[in-house]
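haha ok so turns out i had the wrong file open the whole time. this is the CORRECT one, sorry everyone. sequence first:
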Amino acid sequence: MDRRSFLKKATLASGAVAATSLAAPAIAQNKRTLKMVTSWPKNFPGLGTTAQRLADSITTMTDGRLTVKLYAAGELVPAFEAFDAVSSGTADLYHTSDYYFQGKHKALNFFTSVPMGLTANETDAWINHMGGQELWDELLASFKIKPFLAGNTGAQMGGWFNKEINTPEDLKGLKIRMPGLGGEILRRLGATAINLPGGEIFASLQSGAIDATEFVGPWNDLALGFFKVAKFYYYPGFHEPSGSTSLGINLDLYNSLSKADQELFKRAALAENNLSYSEFNARNGAALNTLLNKHKVDLKPFPDEVFQAIFNVAEEVTKEVSNEDDISKRIYESFLTVRREVGGWNRIAEQTFTQKRGKALG
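then structure:
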C-alpha cells in the first residue's frame, strides 16, 4: 500500500471514529426528562390513570427522546400547586383541572366547566373549532403556560349528601366540598362550600368536617367509597355538565420545542381527551349499577324547585366573571355563543333522540 492510499484510509477511519464519538453525546443531549405534576392521587381511576397514560404516550411517541416522569399529588408539589409549579418552571407539565386555580383568574373556570355550562361535545366544539383554544392560549400566556384539553369526565353527578335535599332551604348551613363557581353558587344559597383535593374527601366526610361532597361520577365515587359514609346520591351535576382536564406546558419549554414536537404534544393531548371521555362513559354505567344494587345507595334527582333556584344563581354568578376584564368578557361571550348554537343543535339532535329512545325502550 503506498503512502497516499494509507493516509487516505487513515483519515477516513479517524473521521469515522470522530463522528462516532461526537454522535453519542449529541444524541444523549437531545434526550430530555420532563416532570409532569398532577392534582390526582397516584393511579386514581380515570384521572390519575389518564395523566399516566398521557405521560406514557408522549414518551413512547418520541421513542424515549422526551421521557415524561409523572408525579402524583404531593410527590413533588401539593395537588393545588401544580399550576404555580409549571408557571414558574419548577415542573415542566401539569395534568389537572384549571378551575382549581380560579384564584389566579376567574375565567379559568370556563376551561374546566361552569355551572349550567357546556357538555363534553360542546366543549370540544368550542376549543377545537369555535375560538376557545385561542382565548385559552391568550389567557394563560400571561402565566407562561400553554394549555391543551387532555381529558373529560362527561356529565357529573350532583353529589353525596347526609340528608335529603327537598327545597332550597335544605342547602342552608350545609358544609359541602365543591370547587369552582359551583361552590360560589351554593354559598349564595346559604351553604358553606369547601375546596378539597380528591384524596382528602373521604376522611372529611367520615369525620363530619363536611356534610356532603361532589367529586366526579359513579366510577370515581365507587373507588373512593363515598357510599360508606353518605346515604343519598343526587343527580344531575348542575355544577359540571362536563369536566375537562388539561395538559399545561411551561411556555418557555413549549416554545423551545420543534414544530414537530409541538404538534406531537397537541395530538397526544387530543387523543387522550377522547380516550378519557370514552372511558368514563364505559365505566360509569357498571359502577352505578354496583352502587345501586350491591351497596343500596339511594339515588335521587334534585327536585325541580331546587334545580331552578340553582340555575337562577348560576346565571348570575357566571355572568359576573365577564366583568373581571376584557379577556373574561370575550371568553364569556364566546361561551354563550357555543351554548346557544351547539346547545341548540344538541337539543334537536342528541337530546331528543335519547329521550325518545328511552321512552321506546320503556
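The longest strand covers residues 145-152.
again sry for the mixup
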